[in-house]
Design goal:
Mean pLDDT of chain B: 91
Largest sheet of chain B: 2 strands, antiparallel
Distance between the termini of chain B: 66 Å
Structural class of chain A: mainly beta
Oligomer: heterodimer
Strand content of chain A: over 45%
Helix content of chain A: under 10%
């Protein structure tokens, strides 16, 4: 309970503080723009205080002030304006448009805000305006290509309701927890997927340690702060947005037609006679088109209402998405709603609520039973009988159309979150905030496979699963902000937080239930060995503080200290301390830079260093545990788990150094930001391999180091700004290099069947044998003493030339007379039609010692490039993004090439396989694929492909109607637009798409069949009332 | 500022008590110090120990999820390298190719000994903590404690016996690993040391603890099981004197049905007419000694390559033994041997029988038709693997007696098994068994047929030093079928009768040295 004593102290301490009595004046007025139009939602507050109000629909405001105070008017996209009150009671102002992004307000965490101009760390910020221009469906859409150093892999174009992944500045940890920390309105959110992007006012990505360290624990992979929209005083503002998208499979890959399957049978050595009478084997279906070639339709309607009266402001929204994707019967429906209410009890006390609720239901298409089967079922197998009914298994291959239609895998998620926040302005310069957030996530999964789909149409099976996650979070903090003698500004923060999360799962399975319409688990059909419940929980507590000093906005320093406790560590190691410091120097304000002033408006140099913690291991890894399972002879077993408990594990620490430069030229029309960072993770927390003879497989330890270095550049320019036409460019590019510096005892490990993690290597390295083609002749397997390949000389018949009974070779163009060496596999000598491998070890045997690093999935650099053109009432926004230097293991092609006997094979195999001596081929002799290591499944460089791509990822053309015209229709604004996404992709990758997300950061870049991406076109309207 | 200082002071004062809030106990498991408190914990710990051994032998079967299928180390170690089985070329994977072509590499998943050490770790824990639990709970009587410990020592001996037979030298762990600062890497000890200082003492200890008059428990290791393992161990050492001594002790114990194993004649074996009882209902057989329990409802589908599975198998019966032993059963003049038709479904799918319908474990009678007689519920039938049974002991006894020069008695025990199988008995003057070596060959052939698919054949070949002789022609045939330019047969038999040590195992313990003949 000590934790809560602390909270009480913070609360009572604040109330006990002196409150200055002040003479209040009721100030009112109107805010307009240069054209004289009223501005709604302008933030009006007293300087140095956070209390304030905003203008209503006709631009009016009212505010209690004192005569000595200064009032600040601010709005995104407008220049901030300050006015002294004096003895005025009425204060009307006109705000000017701002071209300068530096005036934007950036959220820095725990109630802290700063102007972008005054930042000392590396923060990427994306505001509502930029989000709107892309018509995003989810957060990943909204952020992609917009922020440097943030690698966003967006899966949203594929499966209905799919999301993506975000990685900030490279992989910095080995323990799986690699996603950033999401905070929505200051409270932890499990991920960004459930946020409706139109509710977002601002997104900040805290990239460097000094910015993120205020969130100390769990912030090692960056922090994404999301602020949702608030209402403003005045008449309700209603915003309605509707859009409708049509999509088609973006890219077809080669699959075999009937003739190619028959050719493949011949290659397989199964040249059985074609059965020309049986209709089951005489179709020619294009399964790819049948299953993936459907028209997708995505409909979305979003409604929001915001407004307020004196002391009460609200924003509420409702968003409904109905997404039917390209695969038969794959769909997602989603409802999201949010209510943000603020109630101002007095000038000092404010109570606010954020309530959000979301529901999503979708049919997940099991890739194994559909996409892979599309590649696997021969084109000649019948799909529909003449009477229109579906066929089932033919030649032991399932019918993917039947599977898509009849198999159910339905995910239904309910999420609700309720935040209560109390803000109390103790003094002008001191504010106390306390909040309590509760959140419940509920995922229900229903799977069912009916009898029709089983091999003999006589067995069905199903699964019911129920997952519940309950999280609560409590925070309490004091914010101090004071300006002394005009030029010295001090900010400080002191706070406490704690949270707990508990996860429960209920899982049951059944088989052969009577009725196929009822999908619940009945005791009579239960599969007891697979029915269980489980649970896990963790808790954390923290104290944190931050202090900043700013002299004239020219010299800025900031420091923070955070102490975090986690339930995941043993009693002696629960707590970790995390420090950070940062400084910035606005050298453009110095006298010696005056000469540059007309062009260089603003120039700032930043440096920061900070530490961040990570506790993402299993919840109970400090215990050596006994688990219950493994029944023997009617008695349930209990035995030690395979991971040894280590009560010495402690926080993993990431230290990051960041140097940054911000330059603003030409009155804000050209901005440039550069950052260089070195991010070093020490005390790496991961399950290292333990000597297996102990009886355990692994133990979690804090040993090892990973280092990431990177550079990021952001440029924003407005080359043309005229009355009728403007052109705006925003671009960013990020370079990353990561390295595993040290592992526990230097022991390398295999994170999966095709990756290798070793000291000095990179995360995501593919490991295996380097393919060098196929030996054309038995005689082609010939090497000199140094294991360099000899050139086989052919005679005039095109056959290997023999002289005196010996094969004739040349080396470097000269006759070779030395000993001819040959390569062996463990089971025999390599011969014509066998695959040729790089002899890395330089001995006569190609075995596991010849394996090497074959490539890496992480891109060397990636970029985003957005252009906005405005002509009169038209706006065109175009976004390109791209990624260079990454590689993908095309496991789907490998699967296609080597199916089981009755599989379809691939055209690539049919046209590039070795068939007879002398063939120059890509693939070895098919009938001998299992001999002499010809396949090297999962570790064959043949399937590693360049994942470089450039994509025209979205384009949107909008027309905003004339307000005067619209007013007659009782509307305030009307925008209509057409847009498209995933329009064009330039890549050499032969699979569906080189861009896809991976759950485990240690095993990236494996394409083993995924829901393919669609190309979309659509239209929409946006109406304001 | 004062408030701030005060706040910091209070902060540090209250943080200490936050530790309680940060204490989370596992919700789905328990910490080790909360276990071994009473009889129930001990029963579960014993079940957990057998379960780890069971999973090594049978594999973690799950036919709905292909990746967990076909992991039966019982046969990968005990039989698939020998002449009984071959790969099914259409479905085979790299690791099976390596096994049947004697081209094993350290990446072969079955060269990983971790599972055996998992079992050993559990056993070490049991040996340490069960006596402590007995002090806390009086329901654990001294007799029960002795029996539990006997089982622990016997099963540990069995695990080490597998290590010695499959890899040779291996590290010795007889105490649980309990402190992360304790060195975990330990070097391999010689196989002789393991045999003499671990396995035999463990079995002697087990034998001294076990109730020798009790009816054999069958699913767990009882007195008869201990004697059987000990005999097998002494056979491995070629110590025929001790082997016969322990088989003699085994004859004095009682079978699961309560009668003495006796070992006097063929009637002590399961009757030929109900041979299948040994496998499908072993508790009612007087022949069974130790079988692995498997309960479909609790353990799932056994899903071995020699059990029911809807998926294509990578391993089938070798064409050599198919031609000499199984296929003739479908001819007009089949041999009188009762076993082949009850071992493999010889009729199914004729003329191109896929040689993959292994029916030894199932209560079906021999299938006389080509059609598929299998009910879909076959997956829901238990598969009880026999670790030891009396005819195995008879044949070992014969082998030992032959080794000791007692030809008459050796032949007697060989003929008991043949008589039960309805085969003609060998005549003492039969020219084909004139020499001691020839008689041993006859015994081994009988073992091959009697114990087909019971994980014995490879170890028989290694024990009697016949790997090269037996496997050379078979390897040459397979090499020819694989299109190899050279057909060298079974290469490097001295080294390669052992498996390599798996790469991950080597990586995790720097003190290990790879077996010769394999890449380090």
């Amino acid at each position: 309970m000590g934790c809560f004593v602390l909270f009480l102290f913070l609360a009572m301490g604040s109330i006990g503080l002196p409150v200055f009595a002040q003479q209040n004046i009721r100030l009112s007025g109107k805010v307009t723009n240069k054209k004289g139009e009223a501005l709604q939602g302008v933030n009006v507050r007293v300087k140095g205080k956070s209390q304030g109000t905003s203008t209503d629909a006709v631009g009016k405001y009212q505010l209690d002030v004192t005569a000595s105070s200064t009032v600040v008017f601010s709005q995104v996209g407008m220049k901030e304006l300050e006015r002294a009150v004096g003895n005025q009671r009425q204060l009307d102002v006109t705000l000017e448009d701002s071209d300068n992004a530096l005036d934007e307000i950036v959220v820095t965490g725990y109630g802290g805000v700063a102007k972008k101009r005054d930042l000392t760390g590396a923060i990427s910020s994306v505001n509502a305006k930029k989000i709107e221009e892309r018509q995003p469906i989810n957060l990943f859409d909204a952020l992609q290509g917009q922020a440097a150093g943030v690698l966003i892999v967006n899966d949203g174009g594929g499966a209905p309701g799919a999301t993506g992944s975000i990685q900030v500045r490279g992989t910095s940890t080995l323990n799986g927890g690699n996603g950033p920390l999401y905070l929505v309105d200051g409270v932890i959110n499990p991920d960004g997927a459930t946020i409706n992007p139109t509710d977002i006012e601002n997104i900040e990505v805290l990239k460097d340690a000094a910015s993120a360290s205020i969130y100390g624990s769990r912030a090692a992979n960056g922090v994404i702060l999301i602020t949702t929209k608030r209402g403003s005083e005045g008449r309700p503002m209603v915003n309605v947005n509707y859009n409708h998208l049509f999509g088609r499979l973006a890219h077809y890959i080669p699959v075999s037609n009937s003739a190619e399957v028959r050719a493949f049978r011949y290659i397989q050595g199964l040249n059985t006679n074609t059965d020309s009478i049986n209709p089951s084997f005489n179709s020619d279906n294009d399964l790819q088109r049948l299953l993936l070639g459907n028209l997708a339709q995505k409909k979305e309607i979003k409604v929001s209402v915001s407004g307020g009266q004196k002391n009460l402001r609200y924003y509420s929204s409702l968003n409904y998405l109905d997404d039917k994707s390209i695969i038969l019967n794959s769909y997602a429906k989603r409802l999201q709603s949010r209510i943000n209410v603020e109630y101002q009890f007095s000038s000092k006390l404010r109570y606010s609520n954020n309530i959000s609720f979301s529901w999503q239901k979708g049919n997940t298409i099991p890739i194994g039973n559909t996409i892979r089967v599309v590649m696997d079922r021969p084109a000649y197998s019948l799909i529909y009988y003449p009477d229109g009914s579906l066929t089932s298994y033919i030649g032991s291959k399932r019918n993917p159309v039947a599977n898509a239609l009849f198999e159910k895998n339905i995910d239904e998620t309910y999420s609700g979150q309720f935040n209560n926040q109390l803000d109390y302005q103790i003094r002008d310069d001191l504010k106390f905030t306390t909040l309590f957030n509760a959140r419940l996530d509920n995922l229900q999964n229903t799977q069912f496979s009916p009898r029709f789909l089983s091999a003999n149409k006589d067995q069905n099976s199903g699964t019911n699963e129920f997952n519940k996650t309950f999280t609560w979070e409590f925070q309490s903090y004091l914010n101090y902000n004071k300006t002394f003698a005009q030029d010295h500004n001090v900010t400080a923060l002191l706070g406490f937080s704690s949270d707990r999360r508990r996860y429960d799962r209920f899982h049951s399975e059944y088989m052969n239930s009577v009725n196929e319409e009822v999908l619940v688990t009945f005791p009579d059909y239960l599969t007891p060995s697979k029915t269980y419940t489980t649970a896990t929980a963790n808790a954390s507590a923290s104290v944190f503080s931050r202090i900043g000093y700013n002299y004239k906005g020219r010299y800025l320093v900031q420091g923070s200290y955070r102490r975090d406790g986690s339930s995941r560590f043993g009693a002696t190691n629960k707590w970790g301390n995390f420090l950070s410091a940062s400084a910035a120097w606005r050298f453009s304000d110095e006298d010696f830079m005056k000469w540059a002033k007309p062009a260089l408006v603003d120039a700032k140099l930043r440096y920061s260093i900070g530490q961040l913690g990570n506790d993402k291991v299993g919840d109970y890894e400090s215990y050596t545990k006994v688990a219950f399972g493994g029944s023997y002879n009617g008695v349930g077993g209990a035995a030690l788990t395979s991971t040894f408990g280590n009560n010495r594990i402690k926080w993993e620490t990431t230290t990051q150094n960041n140097v940054g430069l911000d330059l603003t030229f030409l009155n804000g029309r050209l901005g440039f930001t550069a950052d260089y960072y070195v991010k070093t993770t020490t005390d790496l927390l991961y399950p290292r391999e333990l000597a297996k003879e102990t009886g355990y497989a692994k133990v979690n330890v804090n040993l090892g180091t990973i280092r990431n270095r990177g550079m990021e550049f952001v440029i924003s320019a407005k080359p043309i700004v005229t009355r009728d036409f403007s052109w705006e460019v925003n671009g960013n590019i990020s370079f990353e290099r990561g390295k595993i510096v040290k592992l526990a005892d230097g022991i390398p490990f295999f994170p999966g069947n095709k990756w290798y993690a070793e000291e000095g290597g990179r995360i995501g390295n593919f490991y295996g044998w380097r393919n060098l083609g196929v030996y054309a002749w038995d005689e082609s397997n010939a090497y000199n003493d140094n294991w360099e390949k000899l050139t086989l000389v052919l005679d005039d018949q095109g056959k290997p030339l023999y002289r005196d009974g010996k094969v004739v070779y040349t080396f470097n163009g000269n006759d070779y007379q030395g000993t001819v060496h040959q390569l062996y596999a463990p089971d025999g000598k390599l011969k014509g039609g066998d695959a040729e491998w790089l002899n890395n070890k330089k001995d006569s045997l190609i075995n596991d010692e010849d394996r090497m690093i074959l490539g890496n999935a992480t891109p060397d650099f990636y970029f985003g490039f957005m252009q906005t053109f405005r002509y009169k009432r038209f706006t065109l926004n175009v976004l390109f993004n791209g990624s260079f230097g990454g590689e993908v293991y095309n496991a789907l092609l490998q699967r296609q090439n080597y199916p089981t006997n009755t599989g379809a094979g691939s055209p690539d195999m049919v046209y590039n396989v070795w068939r007879k001596p002398g063939d120059v081929a890509k693939y070895p002799n098919y009938v001998e694929r299992n001999n002499r290591g010809n396949m090297k499944t999962n570790q064959n460089s043949l399937y590693i492909e360049d994942a470089t791509f450039i994509r025209l990822s979205s384009a949107r053309l909008a027309y905003t109607f004339d307000p005067q015209l619209i007013n007659r229709l009782k509307m305030k604004g009307l925008t209509a637009f057409v847009y498209g996404s995933n329009l064009l992709t330039w890549t050499n990758y032969r699979g569906y798409d080189p861009e896809f997300s991976t759950n485990n950061p240690l095993t990236p870049g494996e394409d083993d069949g995924r829901y393919p991406r669609r190309r979309e076109f659509g239209f929409g309207v946006n109406i304001n009332f | 500022m004062k408030t701030k200082i005060l706040a910091l002071l209070l902060l540090s004062a209250t943080l200490g008590s936050c530790n309680k809030f940060l204490e989370e106990k596992p919700l789905a498991e328990v910490a080790l110090d909360q276990h071994y408190k009473n009889l129930y914990d001990v029963q579960a710990a014993i079940a957990g120990m057998y379960s780890s051994f069971q999973l090594e032998m049978v594999g973690k079967g799950n036919y709905q999820d292909n990746k967990d299928n076909y992991l039966e180390k019982y046969l990968y170690w005990g039989e698939y390298r020998a002449d009984n089985f071959d790969r099914a070329i259409s479905y085979t994977k790299d690791y099976v190719d390596e096994i049947v072509l004697n081209s094993l590499t350290p990446t072969n998943q079955f060269s990983d000994w971790s599972g055996l050490y998992t079992a050993i770790g559990r056993i070490n824990n049991n040996i340490k903590y069960i006596p402590k639990a007995a002090e806390l709970d009086s329901r654990i009587t001294p007799e029960m404690l002795k029996d539990y410990l006997a089982q622990c020592h016997a099963l540990r001996a069995m695990c080490y016996f597998y290590l010695v037979r499959v890899w040779g030298d291996a590290p010795i762990w007889l105490e649980p690993y309990e402190d992360v600062q304790q060195p975990a890497a330990s070097p391999r000890e010689s196989k002789d040391k393991i045999l003499n200082e671990v396995i035999i003492p463990d079995l002697e200890k087990a034998y001294s603890l076990v109730d020798k008059d009790a009816k054999n428990s069958l699913w767990t290791i009882g007195g008869a099981g201990i004697c059987a393992i000990m005999a097998d161990v002494y056979m491995w050492k070629k110590d025929y004197q001790n082997a016969t001594k322990w088989i003699g002790r085994l004859f004095l114990t009682k079978s699961p049905t309560g009668v003495s194993y006796a070992g006097a004649n063929e009637t002590n074996l399961q009757d030929g007419a109900s041979w299948k009882t040994i496998f499908v209902n072993p508790t009612s057989s007087k022949e069974t000694i130790w079988s692995i329990h498997w309960d479909y409802l609790k353990n799932g589908c056994a899903c071995m390559q020699t059990s029911w599975s809807p998926n294509n198998k990578q391993i089938v019966v070798d064409e050599g033994v198919w031609a000499t032993w199984f296929q003739p059963q479908t001819t007009t003049s089949p041999s009188p041997d009762i076993r082949p038709q009850q071992t493999l479904d010889v009729y199914f799918g004729l003329p191109s029988n896929k040689r993959d319908r292994f029916i030894k474990w199932y209560p079906t009678d021999a299938n006389p038709i080509k059609a598929d007689p299998w009910p879909i519920t076959n997956q829901a039938l238990p598969v009880y693997l026999t670790m030891y049974r009396l005819s195995d002991m008879y044949l070992l006894y014969a082998e030992a007696l032959n080794g000791l020069g007692d030809r008459t008695n050796a032949l007697k025990y060989l003929n008991f098994v043949r008589k039960r199988a309805r085969l003609p008995q060998y005549d003492a003057n039969d020219a084909t068994i004139a020499t001691s070596y020839q008689l041993e060959t006859a015994i081994l052939d009988e073992r091959r047929m009697e114990l087909f698919g019971e994980g014995k054949r490879w170890f028989d070949l290694v024990r009697t030093g016949r790997v090269k002789d037996v496997m050379d022609p078979i390897l040459k045939r397979r090499q020819e079928e694989a299109g190899n330019l050279e057909k060298p047969g079974f290469l490097d038999p001295t080294n390669r009768v052992y498996w390599p040590i798996h790469r991950n195992v080597l990586n995790s313990n720097k003190a290990l040295v790879q077996n010769p003949g394999y890449t380090d």
